[in-house]
Amino acid sequence: MSVIHELLFLYIWILIISALLSWFPSSSGGALASVRRVLFTITEPVLRPIRSILPQPRVGGVGVDFSVLVAIILLEIINAFI
Q1: 4 three-state secondary structure
Q2: What is the C-alpha to C-alpha distance for residues 57 and 8, in angstroms, rounded to an integer?
Q3: 20 to 30 A Cα–Cα from 59, which one of 5, 11, 65, 82?
Q4: What DSSP state is assigned to residue 58?
């Protein structure tokens, strides 16, 4: 069972890194863009259903995406029950 805990812990960190990288601009061909594409491929299957359910509040005219926060909370709850 500890392998599952470690994988969930790793996925949470991938979500955090992906969220942090979204704050930085990147060119379409740089190394950062490649990392972002890989992280997007890994995280989007979990985040897309959450985004479809969760409304995006607007703060100062900008939409705020709380799907990463919700995913982390859900993964922590799952991790606690396993």
Answers
A1: helix
A2: 28
A3: 11
A4: E
Neighbours of 1 (CB within 10 A): 6
Q: For residue 53, what pLDDT is reported?
A: 94
Q: How do residues 51-76 score in pLDDT, each as one tens digit? A: 999 988 888 887 788 999 999 999 99
48 confidence band (pLDDT: 50, 70, 90):
very high
Q: Which helix (H) or strand (E) holds 22?
A: none
Residue 62's CB is within 10 A of a number of other CB atoms, namely 8
Q: What is the distance between the alpha carbons of residues 60 and 2, in angstroms, rounded to a whole number?
A: 43
Q: Report which of 35, 26, 24, 23 is spatially closest to residue 65, judged by C-alpha positions.
A: 23
Q: What is the pTM of this model?
A: 0.86
At 78, list the tokens.
């799952």
Tokens read off for 57? 């509040």
> CA 13, 82, 77, 37: dihedral to nearest 10 degrees?
30
